Amino acid sequence: MASITVQSSQLLERVLSIEIVRVTERAAVSAARLRGHGKDKASDQAAVDAMRRELNKLPIDGTVVIGEGELDEAPMLFIGEKLGNKIGPKVDIAVDPLEGTVLCAKNMPGAIATLAIADEGTLLHAPDCYMDKIAIGPGYPKGVIDLDAPADENIMSLAKAKGVKPSEITAILLDRPRHAKAIEAIRRTGAAVSLITDGDVAGVIHTAEQKTGIDIYLGIGGAPEGVLAAAALRCIGGQMQCRLVIDSEELRERTLKMGIKDAKKKYEIADMVRGDCLFAATGVTTGAMLTGVKFEKDMILTDTVVMRSVTGTVRRITAEHRQLDKFHLD
Ligand code: VTB
Question: Is 200 near ligand 1, meaning CB less than 6 Å away?
Answer without folding.
Answer: yes
